[in-house]
Specification:
This protein has 125 residues and is mainly β. It is built from 1 helix and 11 strands; from the N terminus they run βββββββββαββ. The strands form 2 sheets. Strands 2, 4, 5, 6, 9, 10 and 11 form a 7-stranded mixed beta sheet that branches. Strand 4 and strand 5 form a beta hairpin. The longest helix is centred in the last third of the chain and has 5 residues.
């Protein structure tokens, strides 16, 4: 699976941004999809995950719960991350990833099958 994230940018705190991750190469609905982020000097962390179905089950990191929403469109082979009420501490490079096993995404397993290149999100105060 090839993954390509887009939609990052510079926004002011309190504003919104939507990230997209387009997948190609293998059947999209074979994979749970996740979003992760890595701030300078920090380890990559789990942000959100969605199961294989469009409208499937989701999980969020506590730090983004209630502000971020993950969704997917299995016709467009794309997963989204709607980010509202952004804070400076949300500044990071955001990555999407795909794995057949949702739990692998949740725990940021070293065996995650596919990663996309990151997209920078910068939130100014």
């Amino acid at each position: 699976v090839q993954l390509q994230a887009s939609g990052g940018g510079l926004v002011q705190a309190g504003n919104s941004l939507t990230l997209s991750c387009a997948a190609s190469g293998r059947p999209f609905d074979n994979y749970a999809m996740g979003w992760f982020r890595q701030a300078p000097g920090k380890e990559r962390e789990f942000v959100a995950v969605i199961s294989r179905r469009s409208g499937g089950s989701t999980m969020y990191a506590d730090s983004v719960k209630g502000r971020f929403t993950i969704s997917r469109d299995n016709v467009k082979n794309t997963v989204y991350l709607q980010m509202n009420s952004l804070k400076p501490e949300d500044t990071a490079v955001y990555y999407c990833a795909a794995d057949p096993v949702l739990h692998n995404l949740v725990v940021v397993s070293t065996s995650i099958d596919y990663w996309g290149p990151g997209t920078q999100v910068t939130v100014s105060s």
